Hints:
Blueprint: H1 2-17, E1 22-24, H2 33-44, H3 57-62, H4 70-85, H5 102-110, E2 113-115, E3 119-120, E4 124-128, E5 147-150, E6 160-170, E7 175-181, E8 189-194, E9 200-204, E10 210-212, H6 221-232, H7 247-259, H8 270-286
Antiparallel strand pairs: 1-6, 2-9, 3-4, 4-10, 5-6, 5-9, 6-7, 7-8
Helix pairs in contact: 2-4, 6-8
Amino acid sequence: MRRLFVCFLLAALICSSALGEEKTLDSAYPVPGYVEWLLDVARGELGYTEGKDQYTKYGEWAGNPYAEWCAEFLCWCVDQVDRQHGTHLLTQVYPRYSGMNTGMNWFIREGRFIARNGVLSDWGSQWFYGETDRMAVASYIPQPGDWVFYTIDDSGNTSHVAMVEYCAQDENGEVTVHTIEGNMPDKVQRSSHRLNDWRVLGYGTVRDLAGVVLNSHSYGKKVERLQTMLAAMGYLDQQFITGNYGSATAQAVRDFQADTGKTPTGIANHHTQDTLYELYWQSYWLDDSHFAVREN
């Protein structure tokens, strides 16, 4: 499977090299300072080549010296930043993992995954915060430090992961995503892909930039935030703030939808979430107990 994926990547490199002159794109969002530290560590590893029987220091660090090591390389780089700068990025901003879909699922649970096609499988459509329309296919231009999850078939399973270094645009308006990655096929190298390449499942982002439809398949921090607002508005008991979208949450959403003139589906779509968010914050600022001064 790795060799098949490498063939795709090499083809992508040939394609991108034929684009001609490119202009590096500015990041649409502020890039955290730790991202440059992380990229510096990754750049320092360029050219590292696996040893006999696919041995790598990244696999050894992760507990299996002879493992496929694209994820291990990225996680190792994050750990190096933590060690050098006293940060706590690993397991907080980035996952520590080795399994096939574990990394992508971690970003989904954290609420920081943007699907390339604008639809999160089993959940629903996504939208950028502050926008009323659903997210268009390949409309997210990844930021430095984001992780890219690839597949080689239509299974939806991840086959490879890389880290975004920067994005660039050619004279025809085509955007290319430039990455640093391990296990490519036996060393750390730079690579690239077109923004609309179907093999990209999506991006684990350094910031929470997008909402997503929530339903019985949903879980994680976005569900917990929804439940917290429903509880504050009197629609859900505190015991059901679990991060899992169960029957109690679905009923609370139905009740809220009925009270606000919406079709009571129990599915927290874009409009339902926007309305809940607006009413929640209105009630929050009208409740002056938040601003009470407590005497010692």
